[in-house]
Amino acid sequence: MNMQAAEARVGSDEIVVSGRNVGKTFAGGSVVALEGANFEIPKGSFISLVGPSGCGKSTLLRLISGLIEPSSGDVTVHGTKVTGPRQDIGMMFQKATLLDWRTAIENVLLPTEMTRKVTKADQKHASDLLKLVGLKDFRFAFPSQLSGGMQQRVALARLLQTGADLLLLDEPFGALDEFTRERLNVELMRIVGEVGATTIFVTHNIAEAIYLADHVYVMTPRPGRIASVVDVPFERPRPLSLQTSLEFNQLVAQVREILGEDH
């Protein structure tokens, strides 16, 4: 399935995020990072954005988050035009960006502290989130006492602490070793399933994109466009062994072919 300005097939599901002819230019219009992007993302779905470096994946994520404004077109979340950062949108980056002088639980509580006074209920929620990401025994550890994978788990718990129902993750596991990355993919799938959040995940890794997603948005080289939407049919939960199956690798080959056609 190879379509210019592709749109996800969402049926009658509630649409959380949508974009119409979204474009973004930089350097006074001389650099076209994203062009003519159209998309509709239903509630509770997991979307992966995959494509070559510089194709506009992270730009699209920042447009949805409200960190930057589009040069053309509109992005809406819950039916409202995005004009700046919103509390119902949470974002996680490749680096954990934890505060070194704060413990794990203090880092998780940071989004709450920035909006209001922390209550005992907030502290319990933060503690429960650290348990959810497998760090129950590391609540009072400082970042320097945690591995890179554990730091990303804290960052994920901090993201969930915001209470946002739309989660944007920009290559959050890209700097980790393959073993840790696989484990966190399994954890992320479990956690997102439990909280029911709509999730958009940026990655360069085709297998990771397919393993996690309901739909994979395949993007072209700059100027970035959504070249195709590949539907992922596998039921959840998905074991890691799924990635060795014929059906899974046929999807990987399909995405590679789409990317190859656009190089």
From TrEMBL:
Q: Which InterPro entries match?
A: AAA+_ATPase, ABC_transporter-like_ATP-bd, ABC_transporter-like_CS, ABC_transporter_ATP-bind, P-loop_NTPase
Q: Name one Pfam family in it.
A: ABC_tran
SMART domains on file: AAA
Q: Which domain of life is it from?
A: Bacteria
Q: Where is the ABC transporter domain?
A: 17-246
Q: Name one GO molecular function term.
A: ATP binding
- The answer to whether UniProt assigns keyword Transport to this entry is yes
Keyword list, A-Z: ATP-binding, Nucleotide-binding, Transport
- What is the similarity comment for this entry? Belongs to the ABC transporter superfamily.
The name this protein goes by in its record: ABC transporter ATP-binding protein
Q: Which organism is it from?
A: Histidinibacterium lentulum
